[in-house]
Specification:
This protein has 51 residues and is mostly helical. It contains 2 helices and no strands.
Length: 51
């Protein structure tokens, strides 16, 4: 592992957290269908983190 190499899971974790925030905002605005779609995408990212 080099000095400047990046952790690939860090990028996925950031994307996961961003999807959760987007989903929360969609839910608060009353757009439940969009919320469900975002949560499905977030779940896919979470599964990638577990591997």
């Amino acid at each position: 592992m080099g000095l400047f190499s990046r952790d690939p899971k860090k990028k996925v974790k950031q994307a996961y957290e961003k999807k959760l925030l987007e989903a929360r905002e969609a839910q608060r605005s009353g757009n439940i269908q969009h919320y469900a779609d975002l949560m499905e995408e977030a779940e896919t990212l979470r599964k990638q983190l577990e591997l």
